[in-house]
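Narrative of activities, Objective 1.

The group set out to show that a structural description can be obtained from nothing but a protein's sequence at a throughput compatible with the screening campaign. Below is one input-output pair from the validation batch, recorded exactly as produced.
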Amino acid sequence: MTALMLTLTLSANEHYLLPEAKSDLIHSLKRKIQRAESITIITRSLDNSALSKSIEKALKQGASFNLITTNMTTAAYYAKYKNTIVKVPNSQRLTNNFHLNILLIDQSDVCFSTLSFSDADLKRDIGEVMCTTNIEEITFALDIKKRFTERFEDYNQ
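Output recorded for this entry:
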């Protein structure tokens, strides 16, 4: 019983059903970003003013930001910041078929979303976001980050 309780306390899980839990999700993500030293977001689009403000504040405090996106407007917006690496697809095929949305904080938290991190999608569409501190899920997200970093090219090329 003690081993089971220890395992459960080592991995914190949060689930959000969207659009109903949008405000709770944004509040939680802002808290995670606020304490981050390293932020990685893999998404079709990152167009959320609350998250943008939190990311900008974290960058001013010395955090690093890695963004992998298929949206050129999103890429252009974030590429201007110091301590930021922005990756975009090198082919249109990747742009049209990209449906992956992950937010990774340091190597301690990861969130997987069925929707992009844009206000329009989070308000309008039905989806789910699952955040966890499970080391296996974090390792999985780090592997995805590595693969897409290799497949995508620097926005500023």
